Amino acid sequence: xxxxxxxxxxxxxxxxxxxxxxxxxxxxxxxxxxxxxxxxxxxxxxxxxxxxxxxxxxxxxxxxxxxxxxxxxxxxxxxxxxxxxxxxxxxxxxxxxxxxxxxxxxxxxxxxxxxxxxxxxxxxxxxxxxxxxxxxxxxxxxxxxxxxxxxxxxxxxxxxxxxxxxxxxxxxxxxxxxxxxxxxxxxxxxxxxxxxxxxxxxxxxxxxxxxxxxxxxxxxxxxxxxxxxxxxxxxxxxxxxx
Length: 242
Ligand SMILES: [Zn+2]
Description:
alpha/beta, Metallo-beta-lactamase, Chain A, seven-stranded mixed beta sheet, 7 helices, 15 strands, binds zinc ion
């Protein structure tokens, strides 16, 4: 399944069962870009099949919004034919995750100290019946402040995002389409099975978003927001923690 946001922006929808997030797509004159690499090779296959069914070219670049498993664990299956791009903090966290041991015993230990939130455990187990199949790759291009990719008829701008979800959130803005890809940047911090808002990063996020010129926003796990809807939602949450 593939949904269209604007003339040149699309996404495959999230699914709750194994917590697969929305995966974005920007079609450019010169080349196309994937946003987030999915939670597994099977998730990536679903995405590429949807593009093929709709006659859309395979992306040349894949941008990672943050390091969480559901947004990055599919990267190993696209490394042969896409160039991966991530912010510095995301790549550092991916390197850290490469040292994890993937078996039941270690997963339980990671969940106990919230290295991996307990919320993720059933989803990971369902997506990976054999945990040892998990293979984590890092990005090929890493940026610190800002990165731009020129697609011919579209310019993509990637920057760090203030977010309470994790300190390695980055956004991608398709400037001409005015579509902002946020990953989980609008989400709370996940601790165990709880979603916790923090006042300061939420204030910073609202301020940052107000200054970005966009009409629509694709986040990680719900359908598209307009800029107003997103800001209203965040301001309601801010009022609840203030
Ligand atoms: Zn996340």
